[in-house]
Amino acid sequence: MAYELHYWPTIQGRGEFVRLALEAAGAPYLDVARGAEAAGQGVAAMQRWLDDATLAHPPFAPPFLRDGALWVGQTVAILHHLGPALKLVGRSEQARVWTQQIQLTIADMVTEAQDTHHPLASHLHYDEQKPEALRRAAAFCKLRMPKFLSWFERILAANPAGSRHLVGGKLSYADLSLFQLVEGLRYAFPRAAQQALAQTHEVVALHDRVAAIPKVAAYLRSPRRIAFNEQGIFRHYPELDLG
What we know:
Blueprint lengths: L2 E4 L8 H11 L3 E3 L10 H10 L12 E4 L2 E4 L1 H12 L6 H23 L14 H29 L14 H16 L1 H8 L3 H12 L1 H8 L22
Parallel strand pairs: 1-2
Antiparallel strand pairs: 1-3, 3-4
């Protein structure tokens, strides 16, 4: 039975971290909100589940995943659930917990990247908070981005199994998510990201290895991969690229 992924149909966003895991594993899945309403899919179908008062464990917001009778919301929780079935996490408890910890740190950085263009409130337009966005972006580009990336560099170098992966000696969902994080930073902050990544060679090498995985490469070339745009998490506003 195919997994059902529910996420907004026009942006990569947080749902892209789940898409990458499913695509890399070659797992069958239905991207529900991108389907036709005539076929019972589309945004309306996703919204019905969000509004369904009969669900005992309703998702708060997209992305959420349906796996048979099980519903899982939140990107990190979805990947934690999918990891064993997709063989994208180690078997030991230590490996599972460490992979989840890395994913949570990636999620923290994604939130900080989003806050550069919406530092006050998500319901306000970017144009309504430009002065605050400039201050937030300056701190993110000059302080927070290098700090996060240097931590990923450090744990890659310290991996007892070698620096090809974040956890152990095999591909994990954390590797895929770090690839997506680098992609997003390069899109939103090309100058600042170039400067920070110049100091984190292992992170760049991991990104390049993930991009070359056959199933990932095929996905990136396919129409299933939504292009970055200024409605998603990673948005390119040149004035915020304070490299």
